[in-house]
Specification:
The chain is of the alpha/beta class. It contains 16 helices and 14 strands. It has 3 domains: 108 residues, Winged helix-like DNA-binding domain superfamily/Winged helix DNA-binding domain (Arc Repressor Mutant, subunit A, Orthogonal Bundle), CATH 1.10.10; 240 residues, Aspartate Aminotransferase, domain 2 (3-Layer(aba) Sandwich), CATH 3.40.640; 106 residues, Alpha-Beta Complex (Aspartate Aminotransferase, domain 1), CATH 3.90.1150. The strands form 3 sheets. Strands 3-10-9-8-7-4-5-6 form an 8-stranded mixed β-sheet, with helices on both faces. The chain has a 4-stranded antiparallel β-sheet with strand order 11-12-14-13, with helices on one face. The structure holds pyridoxal-5'-phosphate (PLP).
């Protein structure tokens, strides 16, 4: 005959506590089981008796017993003949220090088991992203001047969509994206970048990163080869690694991706990631000859090209080359863009323009990945573009950024000439500084940080050994006066530390 090993002290319930009585009982019993104070197979008192003993309603006892039974801690008939489960998983019983409230603590010190892909993705660290103090720090790269964004206008557009739950924007998204936004994106990409597409080919995503993730997962099987620019964008590397791709680093020179070197390294890639307008991070433009060679190769190799056109709206002189996608007659190119640079990164809207043959599969897949921006945001953005605010904003920013860029070139030449020289580049939101006299970019970046200045080293963008020691110096989000002051401070820090 089994004893009832329950002491009423163990189950002291407090009616004044904020936690419901049944939950207090559940927590107490569960802890006793996990800590081994209630043995497997032991019999619990009937619900009626325990209710009497504890002076609470029988429903309180039944609710606690039922919850424990549902979770596998108890077996038998609830109310009478209830026992502690005979075969609690060993793992559960090892948790000796379970607290009675909240989630179970992780085993301190024991390694977390991730997939190999998960480990590889988690090991990739993006340098310096985000606004620590609400505005960009000199010389943070990749960040637009968010304080210049017409926020009052935007909030009106957003509020109008948020007011009426019957406007069709409160339900599930279908994966295709909000039709007026797709039309606006197709028109913009066509006019500004020579992209040839219909609105049906536009997939609206939560930023370019989501577009990269979707493309990588949909087009590459684990172990298949993907060309990656060397040095190249860490977000793209992470998406490809996450998809299990075998990365082939293909060198970049002053004509952009070295296609011939890529063919020699890996003649059968499934996917080729490229930033032709403004190579990330070096800023060079892929030459027309290389573009034609790349398209021809992709057609023959049956490879997909992912063209990341992340910041080509900003160009300060000369005419930009049109998109690679617009040159592509064999429809091998997936074109991606983002509003993170033209508007603000927290908007989390980007897009992928896929060849017609991929439309159905990508629309179906994006619903499963969940990389879809809120319909309310999509609708407000469609109106923002449709009413001409997008064009106005980009034009305004181009003027502001041109002045900031000139200020950076000026300050760097004046103050930092002993340590670095800026490489010429006609577009974007940052410049590349090549370090002189064998200075190490990681070390210079660490010294700059001591002076509260952020300059990202180029080294992490390389998969192999870095060929260039350089820095990313952003200017878009930083007013001219701050640029001048910060260049001086950086020069002092470098001179003092004599790296
Ligand atoms: C090369 C490149 N691609 C894409 C993006 C944009 O990504 P997202 O739209 O996810 O902000 C960035 C932003 O830093 C970038 O540098």
């Amino acid at each position: 005959m089994l004893r009832t090993p329950l002491s009423l002290d163990l189950l002291a319930l407090d009616p004044q506590a904020g936690t419901p009585l049944y939950r207090q009982l559940y927590d107490a019993l569960r802890s006793a089981i996990l800590e081994g104070r209630l043995a497997a197979g032991a019999r619990l008192p009937s619900s009626r008796r325990l209710a009497n003993d504890l002076g609470v309603g029988r429903n309180t006892i039944l609710a606690a017993y039922e919850q424990l039974a549902a979770e596998g801690y108890l077996e038998g008939q609830i109310g009478a003949g209830t026992r502690i489960a005979a075969s609690l998983p060993d793992k559960l019983l090892e948790v000796g220090n379970t607290t009675t409230q909240g989630p179970e603590p992780k085993d301190a010190g024991s390694p977390v088991r991730l997939s190999r892909r998960g480990e590889a993705v988690a090991a990739i660290r993006r340098p310096g992203i985000g606004y620590e103090r609400g505005q960009a720090r000199a010389f943070q790269h990749g960040l637009p001047a968010v304080d210049q964004f017409p926020a009052a206008l935007w909030s009106r557009l957003l509020a109008r969509r948020a007011r009426d739950p019957r406007n069709g924007l409160f339900g599930y998204e279908t994966g295709a994206g909000f039709a007026p936004l797709r039309r606006a994106i197709a028109a913009h990409a066509g006019a500004a970048r020579g992209v040839v597409c219909t609105p049906d080919q536009v997939i609206v995503t939560t930023g370019a990163q989501a577009a990269l993730d979707l493309a990588a997962r949909m087009l590459v099987d684990p172990g298949e080869a993907a060309w990656m620019e060397e040095p190249g964008y860490l977000g793209a590397r992470a998406a490809l690694v996450g998809a299990g791709a075998r990365l082939v680093p293909v060198p970049v020179d002053d004509e952009g991706l070295d296609v011939a070197a890529g063919i020699a390294l890996e003649p059968a890639p499934r996917l080729i990631y490229v930033t032709p307008s403004h190579q990330y991070p070096l800023g060079v433009t892929l030459s027309l000859a290389r573009r034609l060679t790349l398209l021809d190769f992709a057609r023959r190799a049956d490879a997909w090209i992912v063209e990341d056109d992340y910041d080509s709206e900003y160009r300060y002189s000369g005419r930009p080359l049109a998109s690679l996608q617009g040159l592509d007659r064999a429809t091998r190119v997936l074109y991606m863009g983002t509003f993170s640079k033209t508007l603000f990164p927290g908007l989390k809207v980007g897009y992928l323009i896929v060849p017609e043959a991929l439309v159905d599969a990508f629309r179906a897949a994006i619903r499963l990945t969940g990389h879809i921006p809120a319909p309310i945001v999509q609708a407000a953005l469609a109106e923002f573009i449709g009413e001409g605010h997008f064009g106005t904003h980009v034009r305004r920013m181009r003027t502001i950024y041109a002045a900031r860029r000139a200020a950076l070139i000026d300050a760097a030449t004046r103050e930092l000439g002993a340590f670095l020289h800026l490489t010429p580049c006609e577009g974007g939101m940052q410049l590349v500084a090549c370090l002189k006299n064998g200075l190490d970019d990681r070390r210079v970046s660490a010294i700059a940080a001591t002076a509260d200045i952020q300059v990202a080293p180029l080294a992490p963008y390389y998969i192999g050994l870095p060929r260039l020691s350089g820095l990313h110096m952003g200017f878009a989000g930083i007013p001219e006066a701050q640029i001048a002051r910060s260049a001086k401070r950086l020069a002092t820090a470098l001179a003092d530390t004599a790296p």
